[in-house]
Write a structure and sequence with these properties.
The structure holds 2 protein chains of 2 kinds. Chain A is an alpha/beta fold. Chain A contains 9 helices and 7 strands. Chain A has a 7-stranded parallel beta sheet with strand order 3-2-1-4-5-6-7, sandwiched between helices. By secondary structure, chain B is an alpha/beta fold. Chain B has a single domain, classed as Rossmann fold. Chain B has a 7-stranded parallel beta sheet with strand order 3-2-1-4-5-6-7, sandwiched between helices. In chain B, α1 crosses α8 and α4 (99-127) runs parallel beside α5 (148-167). The chains are: A alpha/beta, B alpha/beta.
Chain lengths: 259, 268
């Protein structure tokens, strides 16, 4: 059917990305979802059982080839919704991190996201409509000892979103930044990262992933600039403007330093 | 006689980097200077005629080979001061930039700077001491409408500086973030921003003053220094004003004149 709406969501095998995909299916969107792990097929099966038409791509967006292959899979269909959600964390002290892992983190969180938002943005602006949601983080407001590069990549994304949405302020195309706090997703327990031993990974007070994704999805549909789900997170986001980074960094160390 | 301290300065062919190199030479340091352009050889010759001990490395620090060649030049020597200053800007609207254009900014400002700092922190942890000065920017606290990728890279750099500083706080390594505002360097020309209000503004800071403040802050081991009075005001208020408002303020500085509407002009 030609009037079917099309949603593209990266990092949709689990976590916030999967929940975003679920909301899009419930809203009647056809989906293209992507992740770098076989679980993307399980996610697609679950979404199909909810009645969705779901296309999957399993590839590594941390490489330029992966990004290009993904873009080829998107094809030239008009995109109604793009959720640039794929991202990873790394954990542990900067000097103990492996350079290759750091580079992959930057390629995924920064370069790939920028490239796809640029490509999708050009297409949506040409069409005069569309909605983009970028998964940033409140980590972007707080210097992140023991996950330094991750927090910096999120500072990049948060800043980029607010700048580009200002450039698009007279356009019908919207760009929304979802800035979650610590959320109960697999991000803390990926085999390649070293966050599993940190207090924040073990904490049971993380935000519920469905609530976080719902807040992001609704903000995107409303064309809001940004959303920080959860009261404590809102408080942190607010305080980050007045509390010196040296103090914020010390707070982050308490949560992120491996025990 | 104690050996001269070794200072490494990247992006040292012009602007703040060149002035940082002058501060280090005036301080009696041996210097290794790096830039991606031929001009670095002339700067080397100039320092040498002044009697400085200087080594120039011409390399693109936005590539792994470039960063490796700088560290080859450093070799096994102790680095007392590392000034990670190399950076690039790129004006105009995000969607008017080509992927190659924003890629260059990401390669130099984020990947290259992170690679350099990663090697430096490892080296200084082995040495047991050292001082790092990172040229961030007050732009890192302000979403950069019409300079979006650049400002976002500086948000990355500013935050990384504070994070690393915290991680090394039980060592004799210090990390200082220099956060200049608009400074009168080649930057705006290279970023193709000469047609913007900020590019044409003639009250931009003198790079020699900016570098001096940064160098002194590094020697003192301070966490960060924002240069210039108006920049201090901006950096303080940036924490109090919503990002959306800051982005709109940035639009007025950075949007090219050719596409500026009347509403913007009256408010510049």
């Amino acid at each position: 059917m030609s009037d079917t709406k099309f949603a593209v969501i990266t990092g949709a095998s689990t976590g916030i990305g999967y929940e975003l995909a679920r909301f899009a299916v419930e809203d009647g969107y056809d989906l293209l979802i992507c992740a770098d792990e076989p679980e993307i097929e399980e996610a697609a099966d679950k979404l199909r059982r909810l009645g969705g038409t779901v296309q999957t791509v399993q590839l590594d967006l941390a490489t330029r080839e992966g990004t290009d292959t993904f873009w080829a899979a998107v094809g030239d269909k008009p995109i109604d919704i793009f959720c640039a959600n794929a991202g990873r964390a790394l954990g542990t002290a900067f000097h103990e991190q492996d350079w290759t892992a750091i580079q992959r983190l930057i390629m995924l969180n920064v370069v790939q996201t920028t490239t796809l938002v640029h490509r999708v943005g050009l297409r949506m602006q040409a069409r005069g409509q569309g909605r983009i949601l970028v998964t940033g983080s409140i980590g972007g407001f707080v210097a992140g000892p023991y996950d330094a590069v991750y927090n910096s990549t999120k500072a990049y994304l948060d800043s980029l979103c607010y700048a580009v949405q200002d450039e698009w302020r007279d356009s019908a195309v919207t760009l929304t930044c979802l800035m979650p706090g610590p959320t109960d997703t697999p991000i803390f327990h990926r085999p390649e990262n070293l966050l599993a031993d940190s207090p924040i990974a073990k904490s049971d007070s993380k935000n519920n992933v469905t609530d976080v994704a719902r807040a992001g999805y609704d903000a995107m549909m409303a064309g809001a600039r940004g959303v920080v789900p959860g009261f404590t997170n809102k408080l942190i986001a607010m305080l980050s403007g007045v509390v010196p980074q040296s103090i914020l960094a010390q707070l982050h160390r308490l949560g992120a330093k491996p025990e | 006689m104690t050996a001269a301290k070794l200072a490494v300065i990247t992006g040292a062919s012009t602007g703040i980097g060149l002035e940082l190199a002058r501060c280090a030479v005036a301080d009696g340091c041996e210097i290794i200077i790096c830039a991606d352009e031929d001009a670095i050889a002339a700067v080397e010759a100039d320092f040498r005629t002044q009697g400085a001990t200087v080594t120039a490395v011409q390399a693109d620090l936005g590539t792994p080979e470039g960063v490796a060649s700088l560290f080859d030049a450093i070799g096994a020597r102790q680095v007392d001061y590392m000034m990670a200053n190399a950076g690039r800007g790129r004006g105009d609207a995000f969607l008017n930039q080509s992927e190659a254009e924003f890629d260059e900014v990401l390669r130099v400002n984020i990947i290259g700077t992170t690679d350099l700092l990663h090697r430096t922190v490892r080296k200084m942890r082995q040495q047991g001491n050292g001082r790092i000065l990172i040229t961030g920017s007050i732009a890192g606290w302000i979403p950069g409408s019409y300079h979006a990728v650049y400002n976002a890279t500086k948000a990355y750099v500013d935050l990384l500086s504070w994070a690393i500083r915290n991680e090394v706080n039980d060592t004799d390594i210090s990390v200082t973030c220099l956060m200049p505002g608009a400074t009168d360097t080649m930057f705006f020309d290279r970023a193709e921003m000469l047609d913007t209000p900020v590019g044409q503004d003639d009250t931009k800071a003198d790079p020699a003053d900016v570098a001096r403040e940064g160098y002194d802050a590094m020697l003192d081991g301070r966490s960060g220094v924002t240069t210039g009075f108006m920049n201090k005001v901006q950096s303080v208020v940036s924490g109090l004003i919503p990002d959306s408002v800051l982005a709109a303020m940035h639009r007025k500085m950075a949007k090219p004149d050719s596409t500026m509407d009347d509403g913007d002009k009256t408010n510049v």
